[in-house]
Amino acid sequence: MLSVFKKFFGTTDDTPVKNAIANGAFLVDVRTPSEFSGGSAKGAVNIPLDKIQAQLAKFKGRKNIVVFCRSGNRSSQAKRILEQNGIQNVINGGTWQNVANLVM
Prior knowledge:
4-stranded parallel β-sheet, 39% helix
């Protein structure tokens, strides 16, 4: 069934996310603490989207950063906030399940 959806909607190339993870990326789940407590990618930290601006110091000096959430929307916003603050090595990993599957 999944292959049917991939044919219609195309597949996303997870290579950048895989490479970043393989190189020790800083994994950041930008969902709420209650969402995070329900499960996340192994090794991820929880910095909710509304706290990103106040937590910029945690991102400085990181070689690779992968942000992710429930659907990819909040992580897209987080990536934009980080880039607007001079942090350019950010990848939107999409959903937390996607990143969790790639960490394994």
